[in-house]
Amino acid sequence: GEEGLNLRHKRKRKRISEARIPRVDVTAIDQCWAIDFVSDALSGGKRFRVLTT
Which PANTHER family does the record cross-reference, listed alphabetically (predicted)? Predict the structure, then answer.
């Protein structure tokens, strides 16, 4: 029976596409930006993610 146990399922990684868009040369400040996800956990164990620019 169910005993309150939880199993973590591993997610399959996405395959990166072979067709890439060539990079464009940056010629001015603020012409190209980057974004990233940052994840962490609070002291109570709750996880969160933030999108940074």
Answer: BLR2054 PROTEIN, LOW CALCIUM RESPONSE LOCUS PROTEIN T
CA 14 to chain centre: 12
User: Whole-model pTM?
Assistant: 0.41
Query: What count of residues does the chain have?
Result: 53
Q: Which residues pair with 36 in a beta bridge?
A: 52
- pLDDT tens readout for residues 17-47: 778 888 889 999 999 889 999 999 999 999 9
